Amino acid sequence: MAVVAVELAGRSYEVLVGEDLLDSAAVHARRFIEPYGKRKVPVVADREARHHHGDRLAHSLATSGHEIAWFIVEPGEASKSWVGLQSLVDWLLDQGIARSDHVFALGGGVVGDLAGFACAILKRGCGFVQLPTTLLAQVDSSVGGKTAINTALGKNLVGAFHQPSLVLADLSTLSTLPARELRAGYAEILKYGILGDSVFFEWLEERGDAVLALEPEALEHAVTVSVSAKARIVAEDERETIGARALLNLGHTFGHALEAATGFSDRLLHGEAVALGMVLAARYSARMGFIAHGDAERITGLVDAAGLPAEIAALNLGCDGQSLVGYMLHDKKMDAGTLPFILLHEIGAAYLDRNVKLDDVSAFLDEQLKVH
What we know:
Elements: E1 2-6, E2 13-18, H1 25-28, H2 30-33, E3 41-46, H3 47-62, E4 68-73, H4 82-94, E5 102-107, H5 109-121, E6 127-132, H6 135-141, E7 146-151, E8 154-161, E9 166-170, H7 179-196, H8 198-212, H9 216-236, H10 252-261, H11 270-287, H12 293-305, H13 321-328, E10 341-346, E11 349-353, H14 358-369
Parallel strand pairs: 2-9, 3-4, 3-5, 5-6, 6-9
Antiparallel strand pairs: 1-2, 7-8, 10-11
Helix pairs in contact: 4-5, 6-7, 6-9, 7-8, 7-9, 7-11, 8-9, 10-11, 10-13, 11-12, 13-14
């Protein structure tokens, strides 16, 4: 088991990475469970996560004399809504949650975002523990404190920074994931190599197949390196005010536009959109002369080798570059009429560019939409 510390001023927490952590959750999270006494411990869970892993968690808590009160969330981004938030908040209030209590979130990023945001606003803030069961959540959304819901105008436009008190990334839960979801999570692992760690990128070129095959040593290494990278960036720039944390958005500006164009549906999963977004960011960087075309092709090759989408034309979006840029204008990173892009100087060296002209991005996207 690996332990990664997320060092924040006055409220640091740990991310545990290893096998079978749900089976020992009562031990690792004892201080957050014991205050419940005879009350049931509230667990917000994705329906599939409850089915696959709920009994393991329940058995662990039962060993310390605790029962679970379950709140089930339907899979999919549609659950991250005003209606879903209201339902959860009302349920937590009905459970008698106090500000000193901790709510447990079992599932992927949707559950973590929804539960985390509910905890951020409930009685002006109560605690929560992340139990991520998808690779995407383990290496990205469960760490760093970004919580949010979606609106009709876009993803994650209403939310709060609210850090968890503990994250248990149980690698054994990943064996139940469909292959497509596993690959989507792997896209975020690729991101850490591309944006800031060329040595890790090279390791992924050699060992990426082993990670996707869930070979224990390779998987733990990849998840731990990814979480450590995010922890360092979050510690430096928790609320994304100095630009460091913005680097974690590599691929997301393009990716969110693609998700919007596909209706935030399972036609394009978030991780798939990020993977393709990173390819587009690399190609745009090369087009502008910021990186070598060979670096852009290496990134494209690594994305393609993982079975992730690497060509925007293959999506058959039925729109043009201007339409995609239109979706970008609703990006929450818009500031004073400008939209910063995360681009590349080389593999492992991402940077924030505030001078990108959207008309040029539109023309670039038109070019990409015609590539077959």
